[in-house]
Write a structure and sequence with these properties.
By secondary structure, this protein is mainly α. The protein has a domain of about 80 residues. It contains 5 helices and no strands. The radius of gyration is 34 Å and the shape is flat. Keywords: Membrane, Transmembrane, Transmembrane helix. This is Inner membrane protein.
Length: about 140
């Protein structure tokens, strides 16, 4: 068996190992943000697997139909619930919108009093001598 005379170049080997290590660290650095999502997704897939098998049995033993139903179910079900809620509450929304001219904003006198007290207290502080000269009132 012929073995060629391999010359081990130490800097080349060290740079190669360093490059591979840096690439591994960089890959982990990018992937770490997706690890929690992948873990959560895998938990959902494991939990929903029996439901997929039952859907496959109900849908003529076709995995593609079962996957389609399982994919669309999380989107169609919430949208239908929201639309049903909007239709059921439309009468009260129309009543509220027709009486909108009778609705007035509450007075915030307590907030104004508190703001004026804060302004008066801060103007008496030693560092705020120029506050009365700058205030618009």
């Amino acid at each position: 068996m012929y073995l060629p005379n391999l010359v081990h170049d130490l800097p080349r080997v060290l740079f190669s190992i360093t490059f591979i290590a840096m690439m591994a660290i960089g890959c982990f650095w990018v992937v770490q943000f997706f690890m929690l999502g992948c873990l959560w997704t895998s938990m959902l897939v494991i939990a929903a697997w029996p439901l997929l098998i039952k859907a496959q049995l109900l849908l003529w033993e076709r995995r593609s139909l079962a996957v389609t139903v399982m994919t669309l179910l999380p989107f169609v079900l919430p949208v239908s619930i929201v639309l049903s809620s909007i239709v059921n509450n439309s009468a009260s929304a129309v009543t509220w919108a027709s009486n909108l001219n009778k609705v007035h904003l509450p007075t915030l006198a307590w907030l104004c009093r508190r703001m004026w007290r804060w302004r008066d207290a801060s103007s008496m502080a030693p560092g705020n001598r120029c506050l009365p000269a700058v205030s618009p009132f």
